[in-house]
Amino acid sequence: MSDHFTRILSRPEFIALMAAMMALNALAIDVMLPALPYMGEALGVSEENERQFVISAYMLGFGLAQIAFGPLSDRFGRRAPLLIGIVVYIVAAIAAAFSPSFAVLLALRFTQGLGAAGTRVIATSMVRDLYSGRAMAEVMSLTFMVFMAIPIIAPGIGQILLLTGPWQYIFFFMGGLATIFGLWGFLRLPETLPLAKRRPLTFRSVIDGFVIVCTNRAAFSYGLAGMFLFAALFGFISTSQQIYVDIYGLGVYFPVAFAVMAALMAVSSFMNSRIVARYGMRRISHFALVVYTLVSAIWLSLSMAGFMPLWLFFPLLAIIMFMFGWAASNMNSLSMEPLGAVAGTASSVFGSIQTVGGALIGSFIGQQFDGTVVPVAMGYFAMGTLSIICVLIAEKGRLFGVGEEYAKPTVGQAAQ
N or C: which terminus of the chain has fewer CB atoms within 10 Å of its end residue's CB? Predict the structure, then answer.
C-alpha cells in the first residue's frame, strides 16, 4: 500500500468503504425478500415463483454490466466509473418505487443492477491494486465480513419498513443509503490506479485483456468454482421466503432466521482473515469446499427421505453457509491473484460470469421449488460437486496444496 494512499485513507476506512460499496448489492437483494408477496399482490402477480424475478432481473443487470465496467476502470481509473454506477443505482431505485406494472419494475431492477455492477468490479479491483497474496485474501475477507452485515439486518429492515408503510418505502431506503455511500466515496476515496498502469480502451486491448483472463487455467477455473457456489446461494436466497414462511411457518421471524445465516457467513469471513496468513488460501478453501459438499449430500439424502424438520434443516444449512464464507472469499482471491496487470478486466469477467451464471443457474434452482427443500438441497450438492471439479482442474488434480503463495511475500509481510 503506497504512502500516498495511507495519508489519504486509512486501511480500516478503506475496508469499510469497499464493504459499503459492495453492500449496496447485497442490500438490493436481501431487503426485498419480505416484500415480494406485497409487490406481487400490488402489481397483479399471482404465481409465487414469478415473484423471484424481482431478484433475477436485478442479478442479470448486475452481471452483464460488469463486462463493461472492467475495461472502463482499467482505462479511466477506478473513481469515475464507480461514482457513475452509484448514480445509476440511485435513480433506478427511486424510480422503481413508482412502477405502474410488474414489467416496468423488472426493467428498473435490471437498470439498478447495471449501476450496482460498478461497485462489485471496482471494489475488487481497488483491493487488488493495493494488495496481493495473503494480504489481499485478508483484506477481501474483512471486506466480505463487513459486507455481510447488510444481509444480517436487511430482511429485518425490510420487515420494519413494511410495518411503517407500503413496499415502495424499501426503494426509497435503498436510494437514500446509496446516496450516503456515494457521497462518502466522492469525498474520501482517492484513485488507486496510476496513469502509468492504465490500459488503452481499444477493441484490441479489451480482447487481449479478456484472453489473458480466460486462458489462465488456475484463475479461470477458480472463477468458475465461485460461479457454482454463488448459484447455489442464489437458489436458496430466491426461495428463502417460501422455505422459511411456507414450509416452516416462521412468519415474521423469517428475517431473524435469515440474519442468523448471514451472521455465520460474516463470522466465517472474519475467522478466515485471522487464519489465512497461517494456513493459506488453498488449504482453507479446499477444506471448506469438501465439507460444504459432504454436508449438502447429507442434507439432500435426508430431504429425499422426507425427513427434514426445522431443528435439523437449520444446523445443516448453518454448516454449509459457514463453509461458503471460507470457500468463496479465498477462491475470489485465488482467481484474482495471477491477474494484477489486468485487475479491472479480470474482476469484470469473473464478476459477470459468477453473477450471470449464478443468477441463471440459481434462478433455475429456485423455479424448481415444489413445497419441499429437496430442489435447494440438490442445488447445493450439485454446485459443490462442480466446484470441486473446477478446483481439481485449477490445481492439476491436487487438493490442499500450497501453490505459489509461499513463494513470494505479501504486501503485509514485506512491510514487516
Answer: C
Domain boundaries, the chain: 12-397
Structure letter (DSSP) for residue 407? T
Which of helix, strand or coil describes residue 215?
coil
Mean pLDDT, the chain, as a whole number?
84
3-state secondary structure 47-90: CHHHHHHHHHHHHHHHHHHHHHHHHHHHHHCCHHHHHHHHHHHH
Integer Cα distance of 191 and 171 in angstroms: 30
In angstroms, rounded to a whole number, what is the distance separating the alpha carbons of residues 344 and 80? 13
Q: CB atoms < 10 A from the CB of 335, how many?
A: 28
Query: Which residue, 47, 50, 26, 51, is CA-closest to 36?
Result: 51
Q: Give DSSP secondary structure letters for 11-22.
A: HHHHHHHHHHHH
CA angle in degrees (0–180, nearest 5) for 300-141-409: 125
Q: Which of 136, 154, 111, 114 is nearest to 256 (CA)?
A: 154
Q: 178 and 86 in contact (C-beta within 8 Å)? A: yes
CA distance 176 to 69: 23
Cell (9 digits) for 372:
419441499
As given in the structure block, the three cell numbers for residue 408 are 513470494
- 10-residue averages of pLDDT along the chain (416 residues): 57 86 86 86 81 87 85 86 94 95 94 90 82 76 71 81 92 95 90 82 76 86 92 88 89 82 80 82 92 97 93 94 88 79 73 82 90 94 96 88 46 36
Note whether 115 and 87 are within 8 A (CB): yes
403: left (phi over 0), alpha (psi -120 to 50) or beta: left
CB 213 within 8 A of CB 71: no
Longest C-alpha distance within the chain, in Å? 61
Phi, psi values for residue 290, rounded to 5°:
-65, -45
Best CA proximity match to 22, nearest among 109, 110, 142: 142
- CA gap 66, 115 in Å, rounded: 9
Tell me which CATH code domain 12-397 carries.
1.20.1250.20
Q: Read off the pLDDT of residues 386-408 as tens digits, 9 standing for 90 and up.
A: 999 999 999 988 887 655 543 34
Q: Give the integer Cα–Cα distance in Å for 94 and 203.
A: 35
Q: Output the nine-digit C-alpha cell for 16.
A: 469499510
